[in-house]
Amino acid sequence: MENDIISLLQSRTPTFSKGQRLISGYIMAEYDKAAFMTASKLGKTVGVSESTVVRFAVELGFDGYPSMQKAMQEMVLNRLTSVQRIEVANDRIGKQDIVTSVLQSDVEKLRQTSETLNREDFQNAVEAILKAKRVFVLGVRSAAPLASFLGYYLNYIFNSVHIVTASGTSEMFEKIVGITSEDVVIAFSFPRYSKSTAKGVQYCRSVGATVVAITNNRQSPLGQNSDYVLVAKSDMVSLVDSLVAPLSVTNALIVAIASRKEEKLAQTFNTLERIWDQYEVYEKRVNDL
Fold first, then answer.
1. Cβ contacts of residue 186 below 8 Å, gap of 6+?
2. Is 90 exceeded by the pLDDT of residue 22?
3. pTM
4. How confident is the model over 23-59, as pLDDT tens digits?
5. What are phi and psi of 88, to 5 degrees?
6. How far apart (Å, rounded) are the C-alpha atoms in residues 214 and 138?
7. Which residues make Cβ contacts (< 8 Å) with residue 276, sequence separation at least 6?
8. Measured distance CA(30)–CA(176) in Å, rounded
9. What is residue 189's three-state secondary structure?
10. At 213, phi and psi to the nearest 5?
């Protein structure tokens, strides 16, 4: 459903029954909490049955409650403040074991990512990176570790890799001002989307650079301004952004590129192993028998 669900509810309010008005009123007033409630919990909260909530979603034009819930979540994810995130997460987890809840959520995001990631975009992204004169990796704030991780490994493979984790728009442009159509930009962005990353990507594409986005949605500010979009499902866990699936996609990207550069990597690491050994970079321990 393309319409903002709040606008939809407001326009349909005069036609709602008493029970539907209760559901609608709660969603409009507490959308940040309602978006993460099951149909059963939403019904109990407002005083109607679960079946009433499900029928309400269908009457609004959704396939069912899960579709309506997804529309609500997509609407609110980028609007939530850190305080609201904590409140919603605590409400979702309740008295459940936190470790189990978080791990199960991450497993589900990995499953969704595996099912939805466009393999053609993935292969095209790999080809573009292999042909690039320079590779720029953009990621700020909570996405900065992803950019640093990817950049760390790409530096073993390519001679010109630039990691840009500056959160300020001005500093971002200072890092990418010399980018050309021969370069590739790999950018990370997830809710709450960084404006500096979005603006940086817009500029890079305007000068002809190829942009690869790793983001949670093709319609995200990053997805709309990229040549290839690698959708990686993310979620909020309290004030923490769950980036397990994006990291897994990043791993896949590194492995795919490395497999095409096997000979060069072998030479690089043969040299590095000698250096690491000579300068005692790593601990050498004899395992206890």
1. 125, 129, 135, 136, 137, 138, 147, 150, 212, 214, 253
2. yes
3. 0.73
4. 999 998 887 788 888 999 999 999 999 999 999 999 9
5. -65, -45
6. 10
7. 282
8. 41
9. strand
10. -105, 135
